[in-house]
Amino acid sequence: MIENIQNYGLKMSKVTSVYISYKKLWKMMIDRDIRKKDLREMTGLSPSTIAKMGKNEFINTRVIIRICEALQCDICEIMELVVHETGIENSTDLKEKV
Fold it and tell me: HSE-up of 63 (CA within 13 Å, CB side)?
């Protein structure tokens, strides 16, 4: 996601990235005294899927639904979108990177 800004008459761009955070899930699991192993057993998830979630990587929506069904919760209770600003760069530099 790129947002143009004006800085002292120069055209600059603010570069941001969006990622999914599962911090809400981990907090819910702590509050309910559920371990990752328990979640795997409740949902049939593989250890690699749990590892992906630990790194805030994208996972299949079916997996998210299985987690919500097992924990009897809504999607917004286990994950959220996070916007992270990565810096400000000259717009000519951005063209080279894209």
Answer: 17
Matching residue, tokens 């999914």: 20
Residues with Cβ within 8 Å of 14's Cβ and at least 6 positions away in sequence, in order, are 2, 3, 4, 5, 85, 87, 88
Mean pLDDT of all residues in 30-52? 96
Cα(91)–Cα(73) distance, rounded to whole angstroms?
A: 43
Q: How confident is the model at residue 18 (pLDDT cuts 50, 70, 90)?
A: confident
Cα 25 to Cα 5: distance, rounded to the nearest angstrom: 36
Could you tell me the pTM of the whole model?
Answer: 0.69
Tell me the C-alpha distance between 55 and 75, whole Å. 18
Digit-coded pLDDT (tens) for 54-64: 999 999 999 99
| Residue 88: how many other CB atoms lie within 10 Å | 12
